[in-house]
């Protein structure tokens, strides 16, 4: 992320090595920016409609926590 003085994300592979493909890095950064923008819009809407900012933040965290990796190896 580069908003509000945060440094750029170094995207890593599962082994910890940084990704080197510039196109992959570009897509990941664009996805992250879209998520940030949508989240900001949702926060602003919630506050403008009288909602609780902290509750919205909790809901957004829960969404991230509930994400499923469909490519994870199945361990039985």
The number of helical elements comes to 2
Distance between the ends:
37 Å
Q: Element order, helices and strands?
A: HH
The helix fraction, in percent, is 40-55%
According to DSSP, the number of beta strands is 0
State the main characteristics.
76 residues, mainly alpha
Question: What do these coordinates show?
Answer:
This protein is mostly helical and 76 residues long. It has one domain (3-65). It is 53% helix and 0% strand. The chain contains 2 helices and no strands. It has helices at 22-48, 53-65. Helix 1 (22-48) packs antiparallel against helix 2. The longest helix is centred in the middle third of the chain and has 27 residues, at 22-48.
Give me the secondary-structure topology.
Blueprint lengths: L21 H27 L4 H13 L11
Briefly summarize what is shown.
With 76 residues, the protein is mainly α. The chain is 53% helix and 0% strand. It contains 2 helices and no strands.
């Amino acid at each position: 992320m580069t908003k509000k003085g945060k440094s750029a994300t170094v995207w890593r592979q599962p082994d910890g090595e940084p990704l080197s493909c510039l196109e992959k890095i570009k897509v990941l950064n664009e996805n992250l920016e879209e998520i940030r923008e949508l989240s900001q819009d949702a926060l602003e809407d919630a506050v403008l409609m009288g909602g609780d900012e902290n509750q919205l933040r909790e809901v957004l965290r829960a969404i991230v926590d509930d994400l499923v990796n469909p490519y994870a190896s199945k361990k039985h």
